[in-house]
Amino acid sequence: MASKFGLALTAFKQKGFFRRIPDIIRMAKAIMKKEYKPKYKNIIIPVLVLVYIISPLDIIPDWIPLIGEVDDIALIAMVLPLLMKETERFLEWEKSRHIEDAEIVE
């Protein structure tokens, strides 16, 4: 059976997560600087799921064949779209901000 890490890695790859990591880091910095205001459910829920997956405590223990890891993968599959949607919102905000900051040359 594949490890929890391997299954999570597969889920991340399928959702295009890895190519968005630099965008997510920029988004986190903008949030911390209070420059960008996200929809908090799109940020808090993925963070809570990440904490759940990393923690040794599980609602369904991983030692139960197949079912033990399915809950983790299901959670990842549910929250990645939230995080990706918020990342897209951030990129749109970033574009609009660059347009506003642009200087008109005549």
Automatic annotation (TrEMBL):
UniProt KW keywords: Membrane, Transmembrane, Transmembrane helix
Major location category of this protein: membrane
Residues that span the membrane, as ranges: 40-57
Gene Ontology cellular-component annotations: endomembrane system
UniProt-listed InterPro entries: DUF1232
Subcellular location: Endomembrane system
Membrane-topology annotation of the record: Multi-pass membrane protein
Residue ranges occupied by any DUF1232 domain in the UniProt entry: 44-77
A matching Pfam family: DUF1232
The protein's name in its UniProt record: DUF1232 domain-containing protein
Organism listed in the record: Riemerella columbipharyngis
